[in-house]
Amino acid sequence: MSILMTRPGDAITAGTQLLASSYTGWLRDAHDGVYAALKRGIDLIVSTSALLILAPLLIATAIAVKCESPGPVLFSQTRIGRRGRPFKCWKFRSMYTDAEARKAELQRQNEMEGGTTFKMKRDPRITRIGRFIRKASIDELPQLWNVWVGEMSLVGPRPPVPAEVAQYTAMDRLRLSVKPGITCIWQVSGRSDIPFEQQVQLDIRYIYERSLWLDIRLLVATVPAVLLARGAY
């Protein structure tokens, strides 16, 4: 029923509710704008500093990858970012060059509940160096470049591959409403040991609760998660 068809008192109440709703929405938009700017600033500062400080480790890893098996040092894979936008996500190559071709034959051995993502603890496609750098999360370090150019953030849902997104439900697609990140709630809570459905729930929780303080807490929690390597394979 429109305001014109209500009693004066009802119109005042409806108008007050509309004004309060608009004010709350404006505050949320303002918060999101300030938060986004501060988050981007932190992403730039941390990614730049990390790339410079970790340069010796990056170079040593590149040499080790190149010496163990033929193929490129870096591996790029199309991932889906915010609002479904595809981008090239970078990693140190941890598998043999025919890994993608062999994935189909290993699909029945997928150990990730739900089947949307693919994970195997004893994946035969992974090289010896690859197994180490995965366990230590060193293979993810080139994604600091993705953060630096603005395709990713330090904190946010992990970016999925197109084949995974094709299987998403409407609920799953909520993960794509924010910029993807290097670390997130489930990354510090068990990583690949957490079933896909629970990963989605934790990502959605992050999206609704995200704040600068939560991002800082997750970054700090990432350190022991990486050192303990729980769920990393």
From TrEMBL:
Family: Belongs to the bacterial sugar transferase family.
CC per GO annotation: membrane
Any one Pfam family match given in the protein's UniProt record, by short name: Bac_transf
Signal sequence extent: none
Keywords, ordered alphabetically: Membrane, Transferase, Transmembrane, Transmembrane helix
Predominant subcellular localization, coarse grouping: membrane
Subcellular location(s) of the protein: Membrane
Bilayer disposition of the protein: Multi-pass membrane protein
Organism whose genome encodes this protein: Congregibacter litoralis KT71
Any one Gene Ontology molecular-function term assigned to this protein's record: phosphotransferase activity, for other substituted phosphate groups
Taxonomic superkingdom: Bacteria
Domain Bacterial sugar transferase: 39-227
InterPro entries linked to this entry: Bact_transf (IPR003362), EPS_sugar_tfrase (IPR017475)
Protein name (Swiss-Prot/TrEMBL): Exopolysaccharide biosynthesis polyprenyl glycosylphosphotransferase
Protein's UniProt keywords contain Cell inner membrane: no
